[in-house]
Design goal:
Rossmann fold, 15 strands, 5-stranded parallel β-sheet, 40% helix, 5-stranded mixed β-barrel
Amino acid sequence: MSADASPESTLPGTAAETSPDNPWPLQLLSRKLKAHIERAPAAWIEGQVIELNRRGGNAFLTLRDVDAEISLPASVWSTVLDRQPVPLERGSRVVALVKADFWVKTGRLNMSVKDIRPVGLGDLLARIERLRQALAAEGLFADSRKRKLPLLPHRIGLITGRDSDAKKDVLRNAALRWPAVEFDVREVAVQGNTAVAQIIAALTSLDADPHVDVIVLARGGGALEDLLPFSNEDLVRAVAAASTPVVSAIGHEADRPILDDVADLRASTPTDAAKRIVPDVSEELGVVRQAREHLRRSVGRMVDRETDRLHSLRSRPVLASPDSMVATRADDVARLQQRAHSAVSTALVRSLDQVRHLRAQVRALSPQKTLDRGYAVVQVVGADHAGHTVVSSPGQAPEGTELAIRVAEGRFRAVSSGHGEIAEP
């Protein structure tokens, strides 16, 4: 074991075990940092060259993220730069293989560029196309996800560049078509590394506003590099997640950004967007006039038709002379009354005759009639005069039997003589 290593054996094994009484020497921390950083693998990164300085065999450059305000200084050997078919310049978009180096003596972290390559137009297009296909496979471009624009939006959210021609085109043409239209304009960067963040922030704010019925993203075209923010995956997903219909009006026909595919409506230019999000007031007034004329004709035809029906109904006999129907029915009623009276009278006469006949029969069969013809009813007077028994044979009335005799004009008493003769009591 060396002399330098022996003191370390008494030092803490990890940084967490150090303390004010038992600290690490600075060189130990530096060596451990260097060993840890050197274990990190090299990584390919993408950025834009914003600074480039050559100093002998070395060159120093600064790379900035294409979508955010983040930059990274790095060093590169001049031989790496000399291998490029086209010299790198400020503003070039590149991919670089970087490896972190830690200088122990100065405690400085340096990013060393091992390889660097410019990103050409073809590379950008190929990358956009790969992203387009991946998002399409997820279903973000499906027609079933597209939302219909309102017929007449009350307020339109407009995301566009600061004091841009696209903004003026949308506002002017929309106002010409529908003067009462309202806009909520959000001016943002529409190119550069801050464009994506600003556009997403504006989109989120407008989407959260319940008064905004449709959102328009407008830009007046430009080079492919300038339109890259509108093919950014974060922006595309933000548009897909919005609940408010979104209109893409980028105005670039040659290379369509991915925003055109995910938007609910694609307009070829900002002017075209203004024409498609609001109706033309003159055309709508014409439609209203046509509708009113059609309604007037329809109502007129209906009134004429119903008038003809009324004339037809009024010309019918029952309505032309309604009293004739009443007179006819009155005659029928009188005739029926007469028939009913005759039928009732006939029934009464027949019933009276029947009653007389029945009365005569009853009288003929009455016991009183029998008594009137000279017959009598002889009864034995019961004990204590409790009841009388009709005498039907002489044997029922022996001599001395008290009898009650009923004749046509009254009754009297008698006593039986026992010889079939009746003696006076």
